[in-house]
Write a structure and sequence with these properties.
With 239 residues, the chain is an all-beta fold. The chain has no helices and 14 strands.
């Protein structure tokens, strides 16, 4: 049994402080449910209501919520990769970078993580007043890079570096800018960080329906040539 929305109805999403309060109805009481926010698995259980933290950077834009049933043994299986692309929420930006103790010029190894900032809309400059995400440099306090450790020379002469990554929420089409800024144990940012831009290309909308309500038509040439010709209306996004 895969993720199914066939028995789900009356999905309601309300803001409750810094959380989303999601409720829904189902014709199969007692089922196991999954809730995806921006196509990211965010909750699973048997209740028909849940509280979910608002995704970083979601303020001021629509949030995509999907609710469906799954088998109990599949409660933590991520089915989002099997869905078609949703209009307006096409893909995520994926950032990869190298960092380490060499980023602290004082030599005190005071690097505790990275703060991610981004543009609030396609084509806009990076907004350094809103943190979209935080990536810890050394979970558990164990320093995994430095002089004589790991990939020799990745962080400068004789110093190694670790590789980090971060993934945004789903974004609309356009060029989005991001900045990855190092912070110390006191939470203070160090400089403007590493800048990057990502181009997101939105998938076209489905073809428009004809006057008869049909999206796809075909003509068959007959039993001799046996050729089928498919025709459809332009996508609304193509004009």
């Amino acid at each position: 049994m895969a993720f199914s929305q066939n028995t789900i109805s009356d999905v309601r999403v309300d803001l409750d402080g810094t959380e989303l309060f999601v409720t829904w109805s189902s014709s199969t009481p007692g089922a196991c449910y999954q809730v995806y926010v921006d196509r990211r698995l965010s909750w699973a259980g048997r209740s028909r209501r849940c509280h979910i933290p608002i995704p970083p950077g979601a303020s001021g834009r629509n949030i995509w919520v999907d609710v469906g049933t799954v088998a109990i043994q599949e409660s933590m299986v991520d089915f989002s990769t099997q869905w078609p692309t949703a209009t307006g929420l096409t893909t995520r930006a994926r950032l990869n970078w190298k960092g380490g103790t060499y980023l602290d010029p004082s030599g005190l190894n005071d690097v505790r993580g990275f703060q991610i900032y981004g543009s609030p809309a396609p084509g806009a400059a990076v907004d350094f007043t809103t943190i979209l995400g935080v990536v810890s440099a050394y979970p558990g306090g164990w320093i995994s890079d430095g002089f004589g450790m790991g990939g020799f020379g990745d962080g400068g002469f004789g110093r190694s570096a670790s590789t980090y990554k971060w993934e945004s929420a789903f974004l609309a089409s356009g060029v989005w800018s991001f900045a990855v800024v190092t912070y110390d144990r006191a939470g203070n940012s160090r400089g403007t960080g590493q800048l990057a831009s990502v181009t997101i290309q939105e998938a076209p909308l489905p073809p428009s329906s004809s006057a008869g309500g049909v999206r796809l038509s075909y003509q068959y040439s007959g039993p001799v040539t046996r050729l089928a010709t498919l025709t459809w209306q332009p996508s609304p996004s193509e004009g």
